[in-house]
Amino acid sequence: MVVHAERARLFSLKRRLEPLLGAGGIACEAALVIMMLLITAEVAVRSLFNYSLQFTDELSGYLLVVVTFLGISLKEGAVFRVDFLYRRLAERVRTALELVFRVLALVFAVLLDYQVIRLVVSSYERDVTAPTLLATPLYVPQIIMPVGVSLMVLLQFVGVCEQLSGLFAGRRDERSVG
User: Fold this and answer.
1) Potential cystine with 99: which of 7, 16, 133, 163 (Cβ 3.0-4.6 Å)?
2) CA of 84: how far to CAs of 97, 100, 113, in Å?
3) d(CA 36, CA 64)
4) Dihedral of the CA atoms 166, 167, 172, 174 (nearest 10)?
5) Where do the domains of the chain lie?
6) Are residues 163 and 170 in contact, defined by beta-carbon separation less than 8 angstroms?
7) What is the 3-state secondary structure (H, E, C) of 47-78?
């Protein structure tokens, strides 16, 4: 009974994350479209008028940060394993490896989140700006980094909890059958 309550809470938490992940997906798509339009405009302006927009590289770089850091949490688990090998393993080995990978990914994500938060805070406190025509305050595009990594932390935490719940449920089922 306790296992079912735990799984229901995990499922509820995972469902609450879906709107955030959906918004992240939409932001990635929009960033890619805007990046494509910017680069197309740059190529057209250079070809037709022999002039550069000057800001295309900078804005495209910021949009690439959006795609990278929001995109890391879109396909859950796919980043952390080699599927063609993973599918050939025995079920128990896959479960154990999945738990180990998720724990390592969670630790990595927490450390990365801590570092990118420090970076954003440092950029804000020191009022660092890009040495470009736009002179963008760097904390503005950097703020997306902890958002994306924090989503990954949440997803990995839920994944670790699911793995542990499934592992303990499997052990209980084995004891009740045996």
Assistant:
1) 163
2) 14, 18, 30
3) 11
4) 110
5) 2-177
6) no
7) HHHCCCCCCHHHHHHHHHHHHHHHHCCCCCCH
pTM of the complete model: 0.78
Neighbour tally for 65: CB within 10 Å? 16
Cα–Cα distance for residue pair 23/153, rounded to 1 Å = 17
CA angle centred on 86, ends 85 and 92, rounded to 5°: 135
Name the token pair of 82: 């080699």
Closest CA to 147 of 47, 68, 50: 68
User: Coil, helix or strand for 10?
Assistant: helix
Q: pLDDT digits over 66-119, tens only?
A: 999 988 776 655 555 566 777 788 887 888 888 888 899 899 999 999 999 999
User: Rounded to an integer, what distance in angstroms lies between the CA atom of residue 141 and that of residue 147?
Assistant: 11
Give the contacts of 147 (CB within 8 A, at least 6 positions apart).
69, 70
